[in-house]
Structure to design on (984 residues):
């Protein structure tokens, strides 16, 4: 799948252009940096799906450390909503640092959820807080999948139909292909804003392209896993959510910073913004999901 | 490779569809002018024609670097493309903004702080092929001078430097031409007289990678667009012994893409100049100049057409006068008026009800200047001048806001003896329009923006002193210069700034102060079989902006502590000469991650401060050999071969350092280097 093109994609563009022009080469390099002091990383995405909501709490680690980041156990985690409900979270038995609500529940639009995390680090108790206000879901009329030939390669375009509300809005899009979520990582999230169609009826706006299975043989083997391939009859489900500008920026920044900066596009590296208080990093957000599906023709 | 190309074009195409977070007086007049124009000189040359061998010690100017086009042509060149900007990057205090780039930094300043003039007309983006080649066709260039801060009083508007490039002026006796066949491009220049008083020149250059791509049977390859071209045109007519009229034009374009979409950018300049001699003590030059820069993207798929166009246009009128009041007093005065229009971007799509239009901005920049260069004694000469600029933002033709600025500039030279001198200089420069670009090497998607009620003009006070000494009857020129620059209202951008298609661009701007200082040492050998120069620069450039790096001072992106350059040419015989360049530079400041956070199985960086680290040091050796098969041939056609090795010892200088994560494993660092050993061959000819 190739989706949301933005400044991020310009980086890709140049990264692809240069090898074409100059046969550039890459190789691993050892970089020596100081190691910053560990900070608390908190990440939670609440949704309106009736489920065990979760929050992950870990320590940051030196950038090139060989070990996965350590989870923070023993934290006190709870969420209080603006409609006066309290949700207690408990640490997962097998995954350190993963805190889940005891009962299943779903967030609601227009409600503010406030996260409070208390961590006792060698007797020093620190409290980290964040809150998110849930925006109402977007009404999607439908999506349609249309084959399109791009330079001799067959692709499928996913086109969106629906009314975009007036005002500045930001969207997160995820996909299920053949009932399997293919956008499980932040780097795979498709983020949109409405600058180009604010308050308009979105009439077939192309969100994403998928490769046709017909391209499988044409793509070099080492690159095959970079795409998602559709065959006729495959079901594609779009999950589209209206998200806050803060979360939108967070995801865009994560995607931008993940691989370092590019000398052509994007500015100097900078820390990813956060809504976690007291020196914590990460993000706490929530959103309602709107769904639409289509079958590959 | 093919797949990469396919992806490239796909991404060019995709780009359009998505989210829009996206989405001289020279060294002063020291010679009396001739009474009339001669066929072979123009006004400007009249002024400098008396360049003496010891000009570097006797001239009151400092920080001026001159390179002859002959010397530049002998230098090794990347892919055989002789490039004047690559040549000036070898001068002390000057450095490439990144490997292979046509952007350059002067004394720690950013590339947009350089005023680049082609026949007195501003060039906003001097690059082809994303910056890897410059727009200047060496066949049409006659001279270039770089002023590293001590900008002549007749010019202004940039903080760091003036690169003054002049095309050929000398009238040939008969129809003649020159050109070259290279690996990347070929070029042809033709010139000739029309009667006794008119001279014309036309030249063209085009790359041809795309022509080879058409040989491919793969549609994704053979439909590719990948080229640049440029055209120069000039006609000059002597109206009388006191009047000359000349028209200069340049147009160049770059394009890449394929059927689904393409990307283009280019410059155009046009100048019409009338030089008039009022008397043997007063000459003048009046000119109308226009310059434009534009870029655009377009997609062509049915039902998904979209275009993105951006451009800028300057129209300028200038009047320059030079007047000798006595043997010792030479005045320069004049007036310039420039109208700026900047169109940051217009997006039109078949899928959108309304166009997305970032409003044009308009500004008017008027300047008056007066300067004097005066010989006080045989040993002491001074220059002083003042430039007054009124910069006005315009809205619907009405003045919205006005800035008045004064730029005093002064300098002196004291000759210690016939072979040595000391110089001192002070210059105050102001910059009103600048580039909204926070990338390390610039990009063709340039958005310039002007000073406004919210964005104060950038200013610099530069002090410099120097010692100049020539040896062995001017065979060797040596110099040592020290400079200090104090910058005010210096511009940087907010973290994660969105600069393209941003209707509220000024919200991304952060301003503060900066300083830069350094020592530049230069030794140049001008004559003999071995010629060339060697230089060393020790420097530092810093910025302090409250909203950036938590208000702590950080290194400017182009800070380099040590830079060595050695450029040598040795004439083995009339048939063969060899050249070598060696460059060493401290690595550019950079920001490396010192920590990471793990989210959903991926790692994201945490930084402790901006530009705390440096890229690995840079070094490179280039070699070339010029072979002239028949140097004494009486035939009209003369050809020569140039064989070049860029990066002869294959140094892997990192261009990008990126971070790779595979299969959930912790990240590793990876460097991308552009060039290993790059051999090239070029055949040059003239007739």
């Amino acid at each position: 799948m190739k989706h949301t093109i933005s400044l991020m994609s310009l980086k890709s563009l140049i990264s692809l252009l240069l090898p074409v022009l100059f046969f550039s080469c890459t190789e691993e390099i050892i970089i020596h940096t100081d190691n910053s002091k560990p900070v608390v990383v908190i990440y939670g995405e609440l949704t309106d799906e009736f489920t065990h909501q979760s929050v992950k709490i870990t320590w940051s680690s030196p950038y090139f450390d060989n070990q996965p980041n350590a989870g923070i156990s023993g934290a006190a985690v709870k969420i209080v909503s603006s409609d006066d409900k309290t949700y207690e979270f408990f640490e997962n038995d097998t995954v350190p640092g993963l805190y889940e609500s005891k009962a299943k529940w779903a967030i609601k639009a227009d409600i503010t959820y406030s996260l409070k995390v208390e961590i006792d680090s060698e007797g020093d108790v620190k409290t980290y807080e964040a809150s998110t206000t849930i925006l109402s879901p977007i009404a999607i009329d439908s999506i349609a999948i249309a084959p399109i030939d791009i330079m001799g390669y067959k692709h499928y375009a996913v086109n969106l139909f629906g009314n975009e509300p007036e005002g500045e809005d930001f969207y997160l899009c995820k996909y299920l292909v053949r009932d399997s979520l293919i956008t499980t990582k932040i780097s795979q999230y498709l983020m949109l804003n409405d600058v180009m169609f604010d308050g308009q009826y979105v009439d077939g706006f192309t969100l994403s392209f998928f490769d046709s299975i017909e391209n499988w043989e044409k793509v070099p083997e080492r690159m095959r896993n970079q795409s998602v391939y559709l065959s006729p009859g495959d079901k594609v489900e779009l999950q589209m959510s209206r998200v806050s500008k803060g979360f939108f920026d967070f995801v865009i920044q994560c995607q931008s910073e993940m691989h370092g900066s590019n000398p052509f596009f994007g500015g100097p590296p900078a820390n990813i913004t956060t809504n976690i208080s007291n020196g914590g990093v990460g993000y706490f957000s929530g959103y309602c999901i709107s769904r639409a599906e289509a079958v590959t023709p | 490779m093919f797949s990469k190309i396919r992806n490239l074009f796909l991404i060019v195409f995709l780009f359009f569809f998505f989210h829009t977070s996206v989405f001289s007086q020279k060294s002063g007049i020291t010679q009396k002018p001739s009474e009339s124009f001669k066929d072979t000189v123009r006004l400007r040359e009249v002024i400098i024609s008396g360049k003496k061998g010891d000009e570097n010690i006797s001239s009151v100017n400092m920080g001026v670097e001159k390179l002859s086009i002959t010397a530049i042509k002998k230098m090794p060149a990347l892919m055989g493309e002789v490039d004047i900007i690559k040549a000036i990057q070898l001068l002390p205090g000057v450095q490439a903004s990144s490997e292979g780039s046509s952007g350059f930094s002067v004394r720690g300043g950013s590339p947009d702080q350089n005023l680049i003039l082609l026949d007195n007309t501003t060039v906003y983006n001097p690059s082809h092929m994303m910056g890897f080649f410059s727009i200047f066709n060496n066949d049409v260039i006659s001279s270039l001078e770089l002023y590293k801060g001590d900008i002549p009083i007749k010019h202004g508007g940039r903080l760091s430097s003036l690169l003054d490039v002049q095309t050929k002026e000398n009238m040939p006796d008969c129809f003649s031409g020159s050109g070259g066949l290279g690996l990347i491009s070929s070029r042809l220049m033709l010139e000739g007289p029309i009667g006794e008083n008119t001279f014309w020149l036309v030249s063209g250059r085009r790359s041809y990678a795309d022509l080879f791509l058409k040989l491919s049977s793969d549609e994704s390859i053979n439909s590719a667009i990948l080229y640049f071209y440029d055209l120069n045109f000039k006609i000059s007519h002597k109206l009388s012994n006191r009047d000359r009229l000349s028209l200069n034009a340049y147009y160049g374009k770059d394009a890449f893409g394929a059927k689904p979409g393409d990307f283009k950018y280019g410059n155009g300049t046009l100048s019409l100049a009338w030089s008039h001699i009022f008397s043997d003590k007063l000459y003048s030059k009046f000119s109308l100049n226009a310059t434009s820069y534009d870029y655009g993207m377009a997609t062509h798929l049915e039902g998904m057409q979209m275009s993105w166009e951006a451009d800028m246009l300057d129209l300028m009128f200038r009047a320059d006068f030079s007047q000798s009041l006595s043997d010792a007093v030479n005045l320069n005065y004049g007036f310039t008026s420039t109208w700026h229009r900047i169109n940051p971007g217009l997006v039109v799509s078949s899928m959108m009800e309304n166009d997305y239009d970032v409003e044009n901005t308009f500004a008017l920049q008027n300047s008056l200047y007066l300067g004097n260069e005066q010989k006080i004694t045989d040993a002491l000469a001074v220059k002083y001048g003042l430039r007054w600029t009124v910069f006005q933002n315009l809205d619907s033709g009405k003045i919205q806001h006005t800035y008045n600025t004064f730029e005093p500039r002064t300098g002196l030279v004291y000759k210690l003896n016939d072979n040595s001198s000391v110089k001192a200089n002070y210059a105050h420069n102001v910059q009103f329009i600048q580039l909204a670009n926070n990338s390390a090497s610039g990009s063709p998607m340039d958005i310039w923006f002007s000073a406004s009620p919210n964005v104060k003009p950038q200013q610099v006070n530069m002090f410099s002193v120097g010692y100049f000494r020539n040896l062995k009857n001017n065979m060797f020129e040596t110099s040592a210069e020290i400079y200090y620059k104090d910058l005010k209202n210096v511009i940087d951008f907010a973290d994660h700034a969105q600069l393209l298609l941003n209707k509220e661009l000024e919200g991304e701007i952060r301003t503060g102060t900066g300083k830069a200082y350094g020592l530049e040492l230069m030794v140049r050998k001008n004559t003999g079989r071995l010629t060339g120069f060697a230089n060393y620069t020790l420097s530092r450039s810093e910025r302090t902006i409250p909203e950036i790096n938590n208000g702590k001072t950080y290194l400017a992106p182009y800070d380099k502590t040590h830079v060595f350059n050695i450029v040598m040419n040795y004439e083995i015989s009339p048939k063969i000469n060899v050249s070598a360049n060696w460059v060493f530079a401290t690595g550019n400041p950079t920001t490396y991650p010192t920590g990471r956070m793990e989210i959903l199985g991926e790692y994201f960086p945490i930084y402790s401060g901006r530009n705390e680290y440096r890229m690995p040091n840079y070094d490179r050796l280039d070699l070339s050999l010029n072979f002239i098969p028949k140097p004494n041939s009486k035939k009209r056609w003369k050809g020569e071969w140039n064989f070049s090795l860029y990066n002869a010892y294959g140094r892997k200088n990192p261009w990008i350092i990126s971070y790779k994560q595979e299969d959930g494993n912790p990240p590793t660092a990876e460097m991308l280097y552009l060039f290993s050993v790059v051999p090239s061959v070029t055949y040059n000819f003239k007739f």
Notes: Chain A has two domains: 40-133, 138-244+288-295. Residues 143 and 160 of chain A are 5 Å apart (CA to CA). Residues 3-16 of chain A have pLDDT under 50 and may be disordered. The longest strand of chain A covers residues 201-212.
